[in-house]
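sanity check this chain:
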Amino acid sequence: MYTAQGKIDKSDTLAKYAPLVRRLALQLIAKLPASVELDDMIQAGMLGLLDAANRYQDDQGAQFETYASQRIRGAMLDELRANDWLSRGLRQSSRKVDAAVQALEQKLARPPSEREIAASMQLSLEDYQHLLQEIHGSQLVYYEDCEGGSNENSFLDRQSSDGEHNRGGADDPLQRMLESGMRDMLVEAIARMPERDRLLLSLYYEQEMNLREIGAVLEVSQSRVCQLHSQAISRLRVRLNESSWTEAA
């Protein structure tokens, strides 16, 4: 994997880690609308892999595959954001769901039901559930939208900006994120969610089940899993935003 000069051999690296790129692309695309092409994600991921090979230094406290995985995922998310695959209407609808959930949670002091959220948005239950299915997957772009304009450094670059000066395990971007308190905020937010939401998120993200498998566990259809996932993510995002404001206060 290394040349005689001790640098990463890019040709060997691209060939060796191409299966990793495809695996990460498949994991990501399973959470996105059908309009997103797998080949586009793989192409973006290969560029992320090449970027990782150019930047990686073996004394920075992270194994290459771990570092490359972060770069690959980041490149795929950048590609999604750059092409703005989610329509403005759906983006606005997703924000309206978040706003309705937040307002009802503050009013009721508990997670609102689907019927309550639908009524708050002046929608029938059927129309609300259809909207949830349409916005499934939009949350990934919301996370990236918080990072600023396309001309700014990426999230990963900002997390590791001090790494050029201070080497060691503490400068591993993933480790720095864990140490920042974000993990604790996420765990706490999930713990406060309804049991079904917690189970769905665990099946989806920890066990990486597909929609059909999750549907079998929950005894619902795949389309219903999409609806439940969109609503769970809206609830989670609201709780994380509340935690962020609390931390900042």
Observations:
- DSSP finds 13 helices and no strands in the chain.
- The two ends are 48 Å apart (CA to CA).
